[in-house]
Each structure stands twice: as C-alpha cells, then as structure tokens.
Amino acid sequence: MGRRAPLTLSARITLWVLVLFLGTIWCVSFIATRYLRHEIRSVVGSQQAATVRMVANQVNQELMDRILVMQSVAQLAADALESGPDAVEELLLSRYDLHALFNSRVYILDSTGTALAAWPVGSGPKGRSYAGLDYIEGALRDGVATIGRPLIGLTSREPTIPMAVSIRNSEGKIVGAIAGTINLTRPNFLDPIMENRHGATGNFVLVDTARRQTIGGTDKQFILQPLPAPGEDSVVDRLVSGTDTEAISDKPWGHPRLMSVHAIPVSGWQLGATLALDEVDGPIREVQRRIIATAIVLSLLAAAATWLMLRRLLHPLGEAARQLTELAAERSPLAPVLVRRNDEIGQLLSAFNHLIQVLGERETLLKQVLNATHVGICLMDCHGTISLANRAMSEMFGIPASRFSGLQYFALVPPEERERVRQAQARWRNAASPD
Length: 435
Hints:
Helices cover 51% and strands 17% of the residues. The protein is built from eleven helices and 13 strands.
C-alpha cells in the first residue's frame, strides 16, 4: 500500500482554522447555554414561586371564608340547641350559605359529638357519633376551629376535607359543634384554582405535610396519595419540613420537574406548583441548536474563505515550485523565478533568485577553471550519472560538452576497465555514505 500524500500547507492551515473556529464557537455555545439555563430556571422559579404564593393565599382565604360562615351560624345554633332538635334542624336547612360552601354535607352535633341535624336531609349522619375524630375533638375539646385530616367519608366513602367550629352558649361554654365536609371527587372550590395551569405542563398539588399525604391537585391521581416515607426522598423531606421552598425532583412524576411550595396557614398544609424541566429548558435547547447550526455554517464559510485566501497568497510559491521542477527535468540552466508581490513570499522568492544568481556565477567560474586544464574532468553523482564535463573530456571522447549531462560514466569506460571502475565506485560510495 502506497504512502498517503501529505496535506498541502493551505489544506493544513485551513483545517486548523476550521478546528479553532468550531472549538471557539462551541465553547462559547456551551458556556452561554449553561448560563442561560441557570438564569431561565431562576426566573421561571421566581415566577412559579409568586404564582404558588398567590394561589396558596387564595386557598387559605377560601378555607377562612368557610370557617367564618360556620362561626356566624354557630352563634345562632346555641339558641337553637336550647330550643330542641327541631329548631336545630330548621336552622341548618335554612342556611343556604352553608349549603353552597360544602358540597358533601353539613351537620350540627351536641357536646358529646352526636349529630343532631344534617343537610342534605336523610344523608345519614343524624344520630351518629363522631366523637374521637380530630376535627370534632378540636372543636369540642379545644374550642378552636379545626380543619381535619382529609379522609374517606364514613357515609359517602369518598375522599373529603372535614372542618368544624365549636358552638358556645351565652356563658361561653362549649355546647356543641357545626361540621362540614367537602367531597373532593365532586365539583368544589379547589377545582377552578387547581385547573389554572401555569405553562403547558404545570400543575398544582395540595399537601398535608403533617400526615405526609397529598390532598388533591390539578391531576386527580393526587387525591389522598401518600408521600415518600421520611428518608426516602431528601428533596421531598426538605420541602415538607419547610427547609426549602424550591427544588428539582423527578418524584412521583418519573421525570424532573421544577417545584415551588408555599404554606397555607389556616390548615397547616402546603400548596406545591410544579413545571416540567423539559418545558423550562425547551427555549435553551432551541437556542443551542440554532447556535450549533450557525456555528457549523460560519465555520464552513470561514474555512472556505481561508482556503481561497491561502490559495491566492501561496500561488507564487506554487508557480516557483513548478518552474524549478521543469528546470530540473529539462536540465536547463538555472533561471530566476517571477516575483509578483513584494510581501514575505515575494522577499523569499527574491532571496532565492539571488541564490540562483550566485550559484550561476560559481558554476560559470567552475567551468572556466575546468576548461583551462588539459586533463579530462567530469562531475557525477554517487550513481555515476554525469552532470558536467570540461573541454578536455569532450575532446577525449568526441562528445560535445553539452551532451555529457545525464550520461553514465560507466558506459564511457572500455570493457576491460569496467570491473576496476565498478570497484572504485563501490569504494567511493561506501566512503561517502554516513555511518
């Protein structure tokens, strides 16, 4: 297999320019995209945090409105409790404001936690004891408005959010409680809030941090779902504990999402907002693709421009090389090469022409010296090829001096002397060759 021809100088310079140009642009592209990714994530994270804060405040206000309405009804319920069950039921059925706020049921309990009246009528809770449930205990024992643990309703068997407030008589003694439940599978106040997505992939999720479970969200699959156990996911642990308010996690969605959380004070819950990182980083990837495409086009244009410029600049060297090759092939006298420009290449060619002039003068002097002697003298290389012969040599063999160039000296030697000449040439070559 023959050796591959080496690249020309212009090709090598063009290749290096292309590599340096591409390397520089791609390094800049890499640094720029990393910086832009960080900045865009920071900006989107700040916007998402502002959104979740606004929505969390809205959810907090909705829960507070329900507690305030229940407390206003509780003031009337104290008198109804003294009048008897019929008065309690009449009061409850007349409170349409409560009916509008609780889509499951509302009921009034006595001080033991037993339901005295319920809406809708015949819905089941009447006469049932709810003592022991956290929201009932909070209202009857502690005397505070309590939003209970989201759970599966005892009667409806559907996920609900319960809450209760205490009923106090004129002396301030707790004599009962009003309770209401919100069915999460039916249309409720959370739906219009949660359905307002931010971005194409954004969603909200409401979390009971104390019990590490979801309550609901934009995606209905998050209704009453447990969070990872403590220690299983450090990101969730930090968000639940309130250590962090922003993070990136792939649980439970299976792909990375940017998450922001904000507390809901009235219930002790947290509202989380999430957005897929693919959507956040989408513009960056598009910019990166355009930068790379632009870099490739500009690099090719730069390489082509460099090659054309070098071809033009190095053209005099190519012409000089071809001229010298032709002179060597034709065994012609040395002649100066053409100098087109007075730049670095032109100065190199001028110096070469000066060298040719000096060599020509030396060759003329050498011929004059050789022709002055009456001894036949010739110059030949290590292979016995004659390059120059004097006038005496020409007269000795009867060959014009100009015809000696290129002849083999061995062919001029008589047959009986050739072996001796061959041995002499061998000794000469051995002596001339480097060790």
